[in-house]
User: Fold this.
Amino acid sequence: MDEVRAAVERHIGAEVHGAAWLVDRAGFVSAGAAGVSAPDAIFRISSATKPVVATLAMLLVDDGTLVLDDPVEALLPELADRQVLRTPESPLEDTVPADRPITVRDVLEFRLGLGMDFAGPFPGSVLGALAERGLPVGPPAPQLAPPPDEWMRIVGGVPLSAQPGTRWLYNVGAQVLGVLLARASGTTLPALLASRITEPLGMRDTAFHVPADRLARLGRLWMGDEVYDEADGQWSRPPAFADGGSGLVSTVDDLHAFATALRNGTLLPPSRLAEMVGAAVGPHDPDGVEGWGLGLGVTVADRTDGRHAGSYGWDGGMGSTWWTDPVTDTIAILLTTDTWTSPQPTPIFREFWAAAFGGA
Assistant:
């Protein structure tokens, strides 16, 4: 797949310092690396964490541990009896009672009423209050967040930005989901992830930190011209708060194992995967964006950048992307050493998608 290699390599040095990629077209696999990265390099996958943790949630739904339309307050009492801002611009004290409880489905759909707003007025008063109380609300910073119980106590101390089930707000739902899964299973999120996904699939390098003997494979992360994180930085030791929204590290091989298990039905029953990748927030939804929708913790494409309608995956702002296109039976993964420079995909990602899916 020379076109994929060319699409990546032309951006090494100009846009990213290093990258590794893998494209699987109906079982024919091509992979490579360029720049400072080796094929087995470990990357901070940031928001590509979300569909991995969402899949873990669907496993608990499938075994009856969780029910999608049940309220979460039995496991997350911090989210019971919520108050909601009267308007997105209201001060924190101007609230009304929540119309109904927050459900497991709301959390998976990012419609629990907390998060970043990409479609309208930014709910700065709530996010600002969380930051003032000690929660990192910017780029992933795993060593800065408090342990899960304290994290939830802080979240429970601010009102919701929107009524449950009414607005799609980014990221916080995935973080809450991680705490919900840990409490539902009676263990920690890292232990649950290991027992249900990473160990069964042989994903030996996917975790919330990198052991000391593997740090050389992690390397630096750049943000523009500055180094955001060194190899021995924030991902070099276990965090107090395992962030289900952006905390994982992984490799192209590990993510390929995950994507293949989803595609083959060996991780989730096909009916559960179909439920997961059905667009709950569609491209024509008031909270959607042209070209994509959102299922249960996974992004769903609508014919964009070479991907066919029904493709599913996620992009991480620290330079990662994974997508599966069921129409062409293609899995495409690209991991890089550099954060995105804007909310929109940078050229290396657009050209990678076009080469990976357009040539299938």
About this structure: The longest helix spans residues 49-62. Residues 8 and 131 are 37 Å apart (CA to CA). Residues 61-185 form one domain.
